[in-house]
Amino acid sequence: MKPSKELFFLAADIFTDLWNAKHETAKQEAEHIRRDIIMIERKTEQFFDRITETDSETLITAYEKKIRKLEEEKIVLDEKIAKCGRPLHSFDETYRTAFTFLSNPQKLWASNRLEHKRAALKLAFSEPLHTAKNGVIELPKSRFHSRFWRKMVWVSMIWCRGGGSNPHDVTIAGF
Description:
The protein is mainly α. It has six helices and two strands; from the N terminus they run αααααββα.
């Protein structure tokens, strides 16, 4: 089972739009944090001005505590802004596996590597695989609403286990 080119490109456009929307949201968040830093700097300046104008040791100590607290907040915000808007991985690295799977789901399943088969099952089904007491395989909810894909996975699993001489003789609940 392979999606049409139009469907694949539609999915790629959706992923690209999501990526761009998240990037834009991160930019807005960074701008909001920059405004908060400016406010903290203004408050700090005000407390420095108050310290120079007062003679009370109690007030000076209280203002110094406030300045330290504001400086700590500024450090936290500086760290946030450094991380904000910078993805950990590129768009291609982030969505490469999803696009590979969507372009041809059977390719990942047909791989000889166990981790690829597990990834295909995780991408295809939302729940773990189960066998009923009577030996009939119960299908979990599919992430794809495709009976063909689900049957292909189950028949392949049973066939690989040596569960039958003919994959069409396999009994699968839900079919």
